[in-house]
Every structure is written in C-alpha cells, then in structure tokens.
Write a structure and sequence with these properties.
The model has no long low-confidence stretch (mean pLDDT about 90). It contains 2 helices and no strands. About 80% of the residues lie in helices and about 0% in strands. It is mainly α. Helix 1 packs antiparallel against helix 2. The chain is rod-shaped.
C-alpha cells in the first residue's frame, strides 16, 4: 500500500491552483483583448477587467480546494 503524505497532497493542490490561475488569467486576458479591439476602440480597461475576473475566479477555486477536508 502506498501511503501519500499530507505535504504531497497539499503540493498537488497548490500545483493545480497555479495551473488554474494561469489558465483563467490567460482566458480573461484573451477575452478582454477581443472585447477591447472589437467593441471598445482599443481601450485598456476591458483587458484589465478580464484579467482581474480570471484571477478572481481562480482565487475562489483555490480557496475552496485548499480549505476542503479531502
């Protein structure tokens, strides 16, 4: 039987959180850029808002994952 240590489980959760954060930030950045170019005459605020939403969603997911009992 392979025993997994608590540190290994925590490390996997943190790795998943970092990956999720990069993906959500990138997705928000891309969506914000598209909206900026197509609808808002190349303003920078849609890019900032999209990136912020991506990081916020990733933070919420990470908080849930790290605070779960499993």
């Amino acid at each position: 039987m392979a025993h997994t240590f608590a540190e290994d489980q925590y490390g996997k959760k943190v790795d998943h959180c970092l990956t999720d954060t990069f993906l959500k930030f990138g997705g928000g950045l891309i969506v914000g850029t598209v909206f900026s170019v197509v609808l808002f005459k190349r303003r920078s605020w849609p890019i900032i808002i999209g990136s912020g939403f991506g990081i916020g969603v990733a933070y919420n997911n990470c908080e849930r994952a790290l605070n779960s009992s499993k």
